[in-house]
Records
---
Amino acid sequence: MGADGGSVNKNYNLKLQIQKDKDVPKDDDTKEYIKQSRWNYCALKSNEFLTLPLVSDYRGNLYNKTSILEWLLEKDKQKAYSAQQIDKFKHIKRLNDIVQLNGLTETVSDENENRRVIKCDFGDDVFIGTLNPNSNATNAQKNFVYISPCGDVMQRNALGLMKKSERKCPSCLNVYKSTDIIPINSEDPQMLKVLEDRMTTLKKQNIYHNGKARKLADPKKGS
Ligand SMILES: [Zn+2]
């Protein structure tokens, strides 16, 4: 991270501190539970707590990198995974279909023994962890995004810290395209449609989710 990114982050932290004083509306408990499980468990292996390093696909799902590596290496998927899993994650065929997430730090929560917390470095907010009734983590989680291909994670409003004309990642300062902002665990159907459309466009351009070009050795084969 360059000096510019550091000072931007410092200002952003101050802004977040102010926001924390505001009240947060509470959702229905059951709905909240389902929502929270996506923020605590690997999308592929639902019995595994999310733990660094994390990766994400073009849909903004969260996975443990180890689970995805196992998935990619498994030759006999029919035997190792359920039909539902195979169908749900068939879009992950190679490492280029995922992006490793950056700017996250894992610590042990003070309030809850043995419970890990993953914090987002940019803004120093809770990304994953036990919800403290006094924290606004639930609210914050709704707005986390990452940028492809750098994988830097931040809250969406952090993107507004940079000049819109420049479109530079506030963390690594690399230039990105507006379409390469991936909302994490979004439940907004419109947003999910945008993500599907983005991937369709990338496929037509022979580009993977992580921005790398597909090899065109056998154009008939397709994907
Ligand atoms: Zn970045």
---
Amino acid sequence: MDNPVIITERLILRKMTPDDTGKLMEIFSDTVAMRYYPSTKNESETMEWVKWTQKNYDEYGVGLWIVEDKVTGEFLGQCGIVPQEVDGVIEMEIGYLFVRRLWGNGYATEAALACKNFGFERLKLNKMVSLPDVNNIPSTKVAERIGMQVIKTINKWGKEVYVYSVSI
Ligand SMILES: CC(C)(COP(=O)(O)OP(=O)(O)OC[C@H]1O[C@@H](n2cnc3c(N)ncnc32)[C@H](O)[C@@H]1OP(=O)(O)O)[C@@H](O)C(=O)NCCC(=O)NCCS
């Protein structure tokens, strides 16, 4: 296992590398999984995503991490802490995207909860947010299950998103 950042009951979250491009494309090429994003991503766009994530690691010490099954090492998805601008301020967002055939196992909630605890306990953040499209019910349910509440809606990425927030 490379660069583990967080370990939970069933999962390992580790840093993303360019070698993950092929695995990430199972999510990014899936029109259903990408329904609330502007479009699917091809290989070069996925490589740009990895570079953007690695830039977040360098600049902020956080970013999306690769989520794997702790026992088998199977790729499950990505989840992590992503700096996002909300009304002119950089907030730390908990983000999650998982392989569609593995939805409904609680992996996103388990990973997102671990990221919330990591943010508060290890990074000493005071507040974390999630920014789901208002129509993305599975995503809003993850935010609610980890104890976040809607504080407002904003226009971001050319669409209406909820600002879910949790503070300590
Ligand atoms: C958002 C997303 C990660 C949610 O995935 P998910 O599988 O619904 O969420 P979880 O992994 O938390 O699983 C929760 C479900 O598993 C069920 N479950 C089964 N076993 C479970 C277990 N051991 N523990 C917890 N939940 C379990 C829960 O009951 C719940 O089902 P429900 O939604 O019918 O109530 C997924 O839809 C996704 O990847 N979407 C594409 C990317 C995206 O839009 N991301 C959000 C951007 S803001």
